[in-house]
């Protein structure tokens, strides 16, 4: 049986000598009022377990609510991450566009600088032509060709205008260059701003991813807690099942004790009447006997050994009692392939025979070995051949080895308790049961 499930089961264990009490003729009977006291004790325990189940279910609901809250938060973070990623991509595109613009402006500035250089050379050329009279426009000739003083003034103005126009063009180039440089300055500032924003966005994205990782961690922690709570709920359900079985067994004992008392009363009455009749007739006749049938299909495997206990199944011991994988294995595993009979380890009374999600098909037997009570548990069976309340003999077949419940591979998980079944109190059967 897997460790997890072993931890399970039941905190119950209830006063329970009564099991044999039902067969009053064999052992000392408990009174009906004692039995009823035990029954109400079990009922109290059951209502305690039921309230625990409610609490665990509340816890499970709460954990599920927390998980859905965390998932909502994760959705929000996820949205924020994709929003941030979108903005990052947008900023990157803008940065690229800005860089392209800067390159273009640098190109434009270079073109203007080239033009200015050419213009400056042209102006120098013109200045030389003023002096050497060899330029394309001979200003001196223009001036000397004046017809009158007024004409001279006009011509001088015209020359001045030409010179000014050249200077104006140069100035215009200079102004263009300054404007482009200013523009470039501004674009560079824009670029720096964009890069700052990008860095901020990257930082935010990083923080969001950290938050997301934390939420993921929290979510898996909550999931683990929920699984544990489910397991706890399963344990409580198991406990409730066993308590219900115990209550039913006590109910059977009560009925059987009441029947016995009724039979005894009837017998006493009959005996009194017979005595009266005998006295009257001076005759004698009385006889009574009773017996009980045990038997059933006794399996031939394994060989029934002497002593109080016998081996419950043939096969190899695949796991012993004790620490296993960091936890504790509360039984002994016996495994073998094929159809393997499981037999009662000793004479006793079956008090639980049911299917549980953890133990699968499981039978609990209560034994009275020379006045010492023992409980044996047979888990994961393929099928059960006995029912609660049934008496079994040592070596009598009670089921077939299987792989039901929380089991990996066909095996018998066998537990032994000194006294009644009690949570985490199974003892090592080695040395007591011949294994
Ligand atoms: Zn086991």
Automatic annotation (TrEMBL):
Q: What CDD domains has UniProt attached to this entry? A: M23_peptidase
Which portions of this protein are annotated as coiled-coil regions?
46-133
Domain called Peptidoglycan hydrolase PcsB coiled-coil: residue spans: 109-183
Biased segments, Low complexity type: 277-290
Q: Where is the composition biased (Basic and acidic residues)?
A: 254-276
- SUPFAM superfamilies named in the record: Duplicated hybrid motif
Swiss-Prot/TrEMBL keywords: Coiled coil, Signal
* InterPro entries, sorted: Cell_wall_metabolism_enzyme, Dup_hybrid_motif, M23ase_b-sheet_dom, PcsB_CC
Extract the ranges annotated as region (Disordered).
254-305
Q: Does the keyword Iron-sulfur apply?
A: no
Entry-linked Gene3D superfamilies: 6.10.250.3150, Glucose Permease (Domain IIA)
* Molecular functions (GO terms): metalloendopeptidase activity
Ranges for the M23ase beta-sheet core domain? 328-420
Keyword Signal listed = yes
Q: What is this protein called?
A: Peptidase M23
């Amino acid at each position: 049986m897997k460790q997890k499930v072993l931890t399970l089961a039941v905190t119950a264990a209830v006063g329970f000598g009564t099991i044999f009490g039902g067969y009053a003729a064999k052992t000392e009977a408990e009174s009906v009022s004692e039995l009823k006291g035990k029954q109400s004790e079990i009922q109290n325990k059951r209502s305690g377990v039921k309230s625990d189940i409610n609490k665990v279910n509340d816890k499970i609901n709460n954990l599920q609510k927390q998980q859905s809250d965390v998932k909502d938060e994760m959705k929000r973070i996820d949205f924020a991450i994709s929003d941030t990623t979108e903005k990052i991509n947008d900023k990157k595109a803008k940065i690229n566009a800005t860089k392209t613009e800067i390159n273009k402006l640098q190109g434009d500035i270079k073109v203007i600088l080239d033009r200015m250089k050419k213009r400056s050379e042209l102006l120098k050329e013109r200045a030389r032509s003023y002096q050497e009279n060899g330029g394309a426009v001979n200003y001196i000739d223009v001036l000397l060709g004046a017809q009158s003083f007024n004409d001279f003034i006009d011509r001088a103005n015209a020359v001045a205008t030409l010179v000014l126009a050249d200077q104006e063009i140069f100035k215009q180039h200079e102004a263009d260059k300054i404007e482009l440089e200013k523009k470039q300055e501004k674009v560079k500032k824009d670029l720096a701003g964009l890069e700052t924003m990008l860095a901020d966005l990257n930082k935010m994205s990083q923080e969001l991813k950290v938050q997301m990782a934390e939420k993921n961690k929290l979510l898996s922690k909550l999931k683990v807690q929920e699984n544990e709570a489910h397991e706890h709920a399963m344990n409580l359900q198991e406990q409730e099942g066993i308590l219900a079985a115990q209550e039913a067994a006590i109910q059977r004992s009560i009925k059987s004790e009441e029947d016995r008392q009724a039979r005894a009363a009837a017998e006493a009455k009959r005996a009194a009447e017979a005595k009266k009749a005998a006295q009257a007739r001076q005759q004698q006749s009385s006889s009574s006997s009773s017996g009980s049938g045990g038997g059933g299909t006794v399996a031939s495997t394994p060989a029934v050994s002497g002593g109080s206990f016998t081996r419950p199944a043939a096969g190899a011991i695949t796991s012993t009692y004790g620490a296993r994988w960091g936890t504790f294995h509360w039984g002994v595993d016996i495994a073998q392939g094929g159809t393997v009979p499981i037999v009662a380890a000793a004479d006793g009374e079956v008090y639980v025979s049911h299917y549980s999600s953890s133990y699968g098909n499981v039978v609990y037997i209560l034994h009275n070995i020379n006045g010492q009570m023992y409980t044996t548990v047979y888990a994961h069976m393929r099928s059960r051949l006995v029912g609660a309340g049934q008496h079994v003999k040592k070596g009598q077949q009670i089921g077939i080895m299987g792989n039901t419940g929380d089991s990996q591979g066909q095996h018998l998980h066998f537990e032994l308790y000194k006294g009644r079944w009690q949570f985490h109190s199974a003892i090592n059967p080695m040395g007591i049961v011949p294994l």
